[in-house]
Automatic annotation (TrEMBL):
It catalyses: (7R,8S)-7,8-diammoniononanoate + CO2 + ATP = (4R,5S)-dethiobiotin + ADP + phosphate + 3 H(+). This is ATP-dependent dethiobiotin synthetase BioD. InterPro entries: DTB_synth_BioD, P-loop_NTPase. The gene is bioD. The keyword Ligase applies. Keywords: ATP-binding, Biotin biosynthesis, Cytoplasm, Ligase, Magnesium, Metal-binding, Nucleotide-binding. Catalyzes a mechanistically unusual reaction, the ATP-dependent insertion of CO2 between the N7 and N8 nitrogen atoms of 7,8-diaminopelargonic acid (DAPA, also called 7,8-diammoniononanoate) to form a ureido ring. ATP binds at G17, V18, G19, K20, T21, L22, D59, E120, G121, A122, G123, N180, H181. Its EC number is 6.3.3.3.
Length: 232
């Protein structure tokens, strides 16, 4: 069978807790306006809680809720780890080793089933997955364009520029970025946004205000312009 080419991207962030899940879900909702078969993937999820008697990860559940169809858990979340710590530590504590080649194979299967696959990374771009491998190795093995979520708080400029360097060093492209105002008390938010717009050299897909209860369904986000020709 001929290989199908689903639209896909790797969503990373300047840190953990900066809004990657919110943005990934918003991208899924935006893609669902163009395509019927849209699915999220959280290849490595660290941290579970008991939901209706089953150990589940919040990010995995949020991406499933934003997807237009369901797939086996082994495909959209091949690695589920109980402890909410760095994946390399969570994996060691669970007696597992994260296998990037297996994750790539799962993504390839999802891309056969779907029109679009949004992959949410764990933590920041260089989050360790094993003693020697990082989330950047996973993004590189997947070969996907990257969407960077910048959690606007003091220190984010350094984190954003470091992430940009790491993305480029892997030969990957930054398809777009999102400014997420996670700290309502941050000073000079506009000046920070201006700096990032000039230095990231990629389209700003969304400028997300701080909200009491952010909702991915109502978040206005542009899709990366590089996808325009493939959108239905
Ligand atoms: N614009 C915003 N205003 C207020 N709260 C926000 C905003 N964006 C995200 N949050 C909240 O911040 C928390 C972290 O967001 P989210 O879970 O999307 O981060 P993440 O980058 O996916 O984290 P992780 O590294 O754990 O995957 C959540 O409680 C989310 O609701
Ligand atoms: C548990 C958390 N929500 C993320 N899944 C993992 C974040 C790991 C960060 C590790 C680090 O960079 O220090
Ligand atoms: Mg998340």
């Amino acid at each position: 069978m001929a290989e199908r080419h689903a639209i896909s991207c790797f969503v990373t962030g300047t840190d953990t807790g900066v809004g990657k899940t919110l943005v990934s879900a918003a991208l899924l909702h935006a893609l669902a306006r163009h395509h019927t078969r849209v699915v999220g993937m959280k290849p490595v999820a660290a941290g579970t809680t008991l939901v209706q008697g089953i150990e589940a990860n919040d990010d995995v559940l949020a991406l499933r809720a934003a997807s237009t169809f369901s797939v086996p858990a082994a495909l959209d979340n091949p690695v589920l780890l109980p402890d909410a710590v760095s994946p390399h530590i969570a994996a060691a504590r669970a007696g597992l080793r994260i296998n990037i080649a297996h994750i790539v194979a799962c993504h390839r299967q999802l891309a056969q089933l779907a029109d679009a696959v949004v992959v949410e990374g764990a933590g920041g771009f260089l989050v360790p997955l094993s003693p020697l491998e990082t989330g950047a190795d996973l993004a590189q093995a997947l070969g996907l364009p990257v969407v960077l979520v910048v959690g606007l708080r003091l220190g984010c400029l350094n984190h954003a520029l470091l992430t940009l360097e790491a993305i480029r060093a892997r030969g990957l492209s930054l398809a777009g970025w999102v400014a997420n105002h996670v700290d309502p008390a941050m000073l000079a938010q506009d000046d920070n946004l201006d700096f990032l717009q000039q230095r990231l050299g990629a389209p700003l897909l969304a400028n997300v205000a701080h909200q009491n209860a952010p909702d991915a369904r109502t978040l206005t986000i542009k899709l990366p312009p590089t996808w325009q020709q493939t959108l239905r």
